[in-house]
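Worked example

This section walks through a single chain of length 270. The input is the sequence exactly as stored; nothing has been trimmed or padded.
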Amino acid sequence: MSISINGFSGFSHTSKSQNASTTSLERLSSGSKINHASDDAAGLAISQRLSSQLGGFNAATRNAGDAISSIQVADGALQSLSKNIGRIQELSIQAANGSLNSTDRNALQAEASQLMSESNRILESSNFNGKSLFASIENSNVQLDTVGNTITLAGKDLVGEFKSLGFQSLDISSQQGATAALDVLGKASDQINSRASELGAVSNRIENSVDNIASSSINSAEARSRISDTDFAKTTSTLAASQIQDQARVAVQAQANGNRDTILKLLINL
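Given that input, the structure is written out below as tokens.
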């Protein structure tokens, strides 16, 4: 008479249950259900590609933010220039009045000279991260999320434009000079308005691109999460089931061992 317990089968089930428990614990602790390539080879490849895309989206957002900051600095400087030119125009109109004498016009010229000096300082010194905003014709390219996906802001040398207009040498100390200054100031104002319009258009385009990138980033993050992130409810349930199975298997094995000992004692006593 032979009494045996299927030890190999019991060991196999126990090993599988322990592996399931180990996998569940690993997923719960890491927050990822793909901790090894063997867990999901295809899912791992897709998850890594999505992670790379997310990195590109983040870099593009930073680039766009820098570009918008640069435009905001330039726009603030242009507003100051526009205000100064507006005041110089007022002074020129006053100086063109035939009822003023030379003393009055010299006083107007003194204020206009200060405003012109400040305007020239703004034009020449305004910069972002060391790059001149108004003294360069070099284009500024904003690199977005993929190669070739760029937004270009054309450079413009406002310093040179103002010099060619004769802005730095305006003289409103005479009626004739004041009249001539109004023409120069009108052209300078047009240059400022044109540049402000260009900056505004590019800024709007960049902001629209950022909105699109943000949407793509959210969708990619959600897709990656569905593929690689741990489903805590499901994994916790799987772990609990594995632990219950382990406990039941141990109890059954103990009962089987007890029955075997009882039978052996009966056979010995026969």
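What to look for: Confidence is low (pLDDT under 50) at residues 1-5, 7-13.
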